Amino acid sequence: MNMSEKIIREFHEGLSNSLNHLKDEFQSLRAGKAHPSIVEGIRVEAYGSKVPLIQVAGITTPEPDLILIQSWDEAMVSEIEKAILAGGLGHTPSRDGNLIRLRLPALSQERRAELIRVAKNKGEETQIAIRNLRHTTIEELKKLNLSEDEDKRLRKLIDEDVKKFSDEIDHLVREKETELSSI
């Protein structure tokens, strides 16, 4: 594999990573319905270290506004409760044995508008990251002193990919905006 192919491959990986990161960010933007991703990343003090909640409990969403957290170790329930309260979700868990219920209130119009702004900002941050990646990739290719034809071919490929990913980001932002507005 020559250097230009390696640079282009790294560029494609960067594009994919940026898009996947945006998708992960959007998963955490709650649209009025319960989803395990809302809590699964909360870090819980367990056996001397902090671990993600998903490693110490089962998480289900039996109703659109309810998250059930089933601790695998009854001794961990109070630690899980503390972690949820400290997690900044703004919801108070209720405990029933080794089961924790987390009821999510309906979103107000103000909160929906705020979440839509956050989604748009995250989309714009991803667009900026992709433009920066494009710039860095082109600078790296310049250092290779490629032929004019090869340089034009690679720039065209880069620009086409940036356009494709940019359109996908716009689509994801519109989808998230619709989801946040309609539920």
From TrEMBL:
InterPro entries: Ribosome_recyc_fac (IPR002661), Ribosome_recyc_fac_dom (IPR023584), RRF_sf (IPR036191). Residues 22-180 form the Ribosome recycling factor domain. It is found in: Cytoplasm. The keyword Hydrolase does not apply. Keywords: Cytoplasm, Protein biosynthesis. GO terms for cellular component: cytoplasm. One of its GO terms (molecular function) is ribosomal large subunit binding. The keyword Lipid biosynthesis does not apply. GO terms for biological process: translational termination. HAMAP family: RRF. Belongs to the RRF family. Responsible for the release of ribosomes from messenger RNA at the termination of protein biosynthesis. May increase the efficiency of translation by recycling ribosomes from one round of translation to another. This is Ribosome-recycling factor. It comes from candidate division WWE3 bacterium RIFCSPLOWO2_01_FULL_42_11. The lineage of its organism: Bacteria, Katanobacteria.
